[in-house]
Amino acid sequence: MDQETEKLIQLFIRLHRKQLETNIRSVDHKTSESRVLYLLKKSNSRGLKVSDLSVALRVTSPFVTQQVNLLEEKGLIQRQRDAKDGRVVRIHLTEEGWVAAEEIEQNIYSIFSGLTAYLGKEDSDKLAELLTKALNYIEEQFMDKMRGKA
């Protein structure tokens, strides 16, 4: 394996570990739960369907349902029938869920505003561009494997 590839692998592993450590240390929720709460907060009061969360998180609906069940047991979210279409169930934050989502959002903002200040505008833009390019490549490879093209 060449040095550049090994370096990228190690950096991505370190980045992932730091992200998990930061979430565990600052918030009492798993990363997957934090992501659901964060997205529900961003949806404001309209709530989201399981399928909406699945698309936004890029995971399967059964995985989202499992997270929703756990968060509902903890009293952080509630399911409500849509007022316009009773067949549709939307997921909303409870008051306790809203408080948790606020903490998560503030934690995320604090970390990334600090990183932006540390890197400066030019390097922050460059990092965003490179991460977007890397993620697009990785997602494309993953989708090709899922379709049996690899």
TrEMBL record:
PROSITE patterns: HTH_MARR_2
Keywords: DNA-binding
UniProt superkingdom: Bacteria
Gene Ontology terms: biological process: response to stress
Family annotation (InterPro entries): HTH_MarR-typ (IPR000835), MarR/SlyA-like (IPR039422), WH-like_DNA-bd_sf (IPR036388), WH_DNA-bd_sf (IPR036390)
Pfam families: MarR_2
SUPFAM superfamilies the record matches: Winged helix' DNA-binding domain
Lyase as UniProt keyword: no
Residue ranges that the Swiss-Prot or TrEMBL entry lists as coiled coil: none
MF annotations from Gene Ontology: DNA binding; DNA-binding transcription factor activity
Residue ranges occupied by any HTH marR-type domain in the UniProt entry: 5-136
Name of the protein in question: MarR family transcriptional regulator
Organism: Halalkalibacter oceani
